[in-house]
Amino acid sequence: MNIEKELKENRKFIDSIIERKFPKEIDLSYLGWLAGEASNSYDSYVLQKVLFDPMWDLLLRGGKRWRPWLFLILAKNLGVDVEKYKELSVIIELLHNGSLVADDIEDSAEMRRGDKAIHIKYGLDVAVNLSSAMYFMPLRILMEMDIDDKTYRRLVNAYLEDMIRIHLGQATDIGWHRGVKDPEEITADQYLQMCANKTGVLPRLAARYAAIIAGLDEESEKKLGKFAESIGVAFQIQDDIINVTDAEKLGKDYGEDITEGKVTLIVIHTLSKASEDDKRRLKEILAMHTRDRALIEEAISILKKYGSVEYAKEFAREIVRKSWREIEDILPDNEYKEKLRELANFLVEREF
User: Fold this and answer.
1) Distance between CA 33 and CA 141 in Å, rounded?
2) What is the pTM of this model?
3) Domain 3-349 classified CATH 3.30.450.20?
4) Where are the domains of the chain?
5) For residue 319, which of 20, 133, 234, 329 is within the disulfide window of CB 3.0 to 4.6 Å?
6) What one-character-per-residue DSSP string does 142-171 give?
7) Chain segment 173-210, per-residue pLDDT in tens
């Protein structure tokens, strides 16, 4: 099976569902559906320019769409009628893209998917509002689904819990790159929890949604959510690796994590192994938030000197292996189970 090919085909499918619910071009009747009847009159022209155009600009730049694909494949594995629930995949993808807009603002990033970050291209005010809108607009899908009250409550509760978590993860990441805490005091477990809250949370939500609509009990929902969270963490570690080896493949600036002063597993490992001089110098460069290529390369050379990139790579692989062992017996044996295994491996071995 060619995962990359399947993801590309899935992207077309997901985008077609997104466009049906959140079209590229809107009018007053659409706004009435989305937000309810206007008390006076919506300004559809301005909302098009300030909300929907920037949103579709970001969506059309690319992205792997692997989180909604995870939901769809897991649901199929569990025997769900995906046609009935496919629109839940849109919730996962819009939440993810909204989080990217917020992340770029908070990190002062300049690039996203090969183009200017939304706050740079359209303005900070537009980007802040867009990020929030993409967190809440997808709820219209849940509000209109024909499902029983218990299932509805479980879906809404999963959404609310994981949206709280994503803000905890982001807050932790912000605090670290702002220097609120000495990087040497940050543990690997704290880093992994930050990743679980920030990057693992939407795969987790995708898996929880699949479990809920399949009618699984809460314990099984928790286990599948943990599996998806774990591969999300592994995905983030691989992102961290690519960022200091070939960031342009991610559509980002070279060494962007160094510029942002990110404390990654690679950094934590280096600080645990490095000489006092190298630890001091690495922390100095991270605190500069520099875009100077020579300084970025100096920091990266310190990370590589102590084998921290290789360490992180193997750590991510072990996360995937362990998480798969813990849910393998829950999943029915069918073609979709193998696709899930291959997706997990792809996320940690990819080079883009």
Assistant:
1) 11
2) 0.93
3) no
4) 3-349
5) 234
6) HHT----HHHHHHHHHHHHHHHHHHHHHHH
7) 999 999 999 999 999 999 999 999 999 999 999 999 99
